[in-house]
Specification:
By secondary structure, this protein is of the alpha+beta class. The protein has 2 domains: 252 residues, BirA Bifunctional Protein, domain 2 (2-Layer Sandwich); 88 residues, Anticodon-binding domain (Rossmann fold, 3-Layer(aba) Sandwich), CATH 3.40.50. Helices cover 36% and strands 22% of the residues. The protein has an 8-stranded mixed β-sheet, with helices on both faces. Strand 5 and strand 6 form a beta hairpin. It binds one RNA strand through strand 1, helix 3, strand 8, strand 12 and strand 13.
Length: 428
RNA sequence: GUGGUCGUAGCUCAGUUGGUUAGAGCGCCAGGUUGUGGCCCUGGAGGUCGGGGGUUCAAGACCCCUCGAUCACCCCA
């Protein structure tokens, strides 16, 4: 046993899949399958992949996500080197927006649809479905204020889940209003809550000062009770935002997408305005948030743009998606099978194996052979384990005659095949 | 960051109130089959009982610390 272990909250993805003591990590082929499906759906939405660095300037994340958010204030892997401050990206919307501005993608005219899949890092206490290195995928539609962009974003996320066979989730939707209606609502909320302040938890009391809207997100039953009659954001948002929200809902309805209008839905990142949504698994428990997103028209300004660059997007967690697939038994991807496994007996045959395997591989066959010089029986067992379609058996006799024994492992039948006809025999 | 639970072979786990050389199933390896996988039979390898310290004549079992996992809080994807 090695004395080194992967860092807490991180995990290896292996060909066979394994458990971390409780949580199970899917085989790499399941991840590949999920990624391939995501790419396919993204392409259906006209999106192309963007890959940004894992390392970003700390300031970008702090400004983008918000200094007072939990992510920035206590969950970043950040370090200093020379006179630069680095972070391991905790999310990728801010980096995508940074890249958009850095490369002047607005100058290409039109709307950019960018998707990503990759690792993110947050220094949270690990638990099921929550890791310190985790993987997000998401879509950002940049350059459009049209409500169809918002609806498109939500539909895209939903399509990813549907394409994988998941149906067990709920969409929650809200509008956060614009930069003027939010402060007004904030004031009203503070005015409403302040009289009860001493009945709140310490966390909520702190939020009253720093980020009062996050209090709406509380899971404490008593606090929810106190919030029953709290002013609603929907009563404060500006007319344009309200109309925008109605349009978004209209588009969702037009494609038969069901959602729950949730006036208490607030996202934990500061950059959202107007549309905010979350997709929650109905069966995953505490870490059931599959995807979240919304409109973030003001992020561009926060990152130094001279004018508003309207944008919407969603981000989703790969771990939770795969957890949900597992729970629904939708993650059984069969291991690939070999076309042929070459069993060699004797030194001459061992030597013969190598170029033959190469020439078959060059013709597109998946070919394996034993590398441990084991017995015929052991080699056969290995072929069986690797689920090879055929086994090619060659010993001194076959080398002399130029004719191999080829066994069909499914039929358990065996025929003699001249070396020159091996490839054509495998095609059958 | 806070609280609860757990940590024995590669995996899943058993291990009586502390008491000799720590077990099972699966997996792995070998043999039964002088050149044929899966099923069956036989045998074998594999464990500093997460790590460190302590109590005791004696600790896998008890105590403390630590690390890890896990569930919840929190957070969010």
């Amino acid at each position: 046993m090695s004395s080194f272990k992967s860092i807490s909250g991180t995990f290896d993805i292996l060909p066979e899949g394994h458990t971390t003591g409780g949580d199970s990590i899917a085989p790499s082929r399941v991840w590949q399958y999920v990624e391939a499906t995501i790419r396919k759906v993204m392409e259906a939405y006209g999106a192309e992949e963007i890959r940004t660095p894992i390392l970003e300037p700390t300031e970008l994340i702090a400004r983008g996500i918000g200094q007072l958010t939990d992510i920035v204030s206590k969950e970043m892997f950040a370090f200093e080197r020379g006179d630069t401050n680095y972070v391991l990206r905790p999310e990728v919307t801010a980096p995508v927006m940074r890249a958009y501005q850095q490369h002047h993608l607005d100058q290409k005219g039109g709307v950019q649809r960018l998707y990503y899949i990759g690792p993110c890092f947050r220094a949270e206490r690990p638990q099921k479905g929550r890791y310190r290195q985790f993987h997000q995928f998401g879509l950002e539609i940049i350059g459009a204020t049209d409500a169809r962009a918002d609806a498109d974003t939500i539909a895209c996320a939903v399509d990813v889940y549907r394409a994988l066979g998941l149906t067990d989730f709920t969409i929650r939707l809200n509008s956060l209003g614009d930069s003027e209606s939010r402060p007004r609502y904030k004031d009203a909320l503070i005015a409403y809550i302040t009289p009860f302040a001493d009945q709140l938890s310490e966390i909520s009391r702190n939020r009253l000062q720093t980020n009062p809207m996050r209090i709406l997100d509380t899971k404490i039953e008593k606090e929810r009770e106190l919030l029953k009659n709290a002013p609603l954001l929907s009563d404060f948002i500006d007319e344009e935002s309200r109309q925008h929200h109605e349009e978004v809902k209209g588009y969702l309805t037009s494609i038969g997408l069901k959602y729950v209008d949730d006036p208490f839905l607030v996202r934990g990142l500061d950059y959202y305005s107007r549309t905010a949504f979350e997709i929650e698994s109905d069966s995953l428990g505490a870490q059931g948030s599959l995807a979240g997103g919304g409109r973030y028209d003001l992020l561009s300004l926060e990152l130094g743009a001279k004018q508003v660059i309207p944008a919407v997007g969603f981000a989703a967690g790969m771990e939770r998606l795969i957890m949900a697939l597992d729970a629904a038994n939708l993650a059984d991807i069969p291991a690939p099978r070999l076309d042929a496994f070459i069993v060699a007996l004797g030194d001459a045959a061992l030597t013969w194996t190598f170029p033959v395997a190469q020439s078959l591989r060059a013709k597109g066959f998946k070919v394996g052979y034993d590398l441990k010089g084991r017995s015929l029986k052991a080699q056969m067992r290995e072929a069986s384990r690797q689920n090879s379609r055929y086994v090619i058996i060659v010993g001194d006799d076959e080398l002399a005659s130029g004719v191999a024994e080829v066994k069909d492992m499914d039929q358990s039948s065996q025929t003699s095949v001249p070396f020159a006809q091996l490839a054509s025999h495998l095609t059958k």
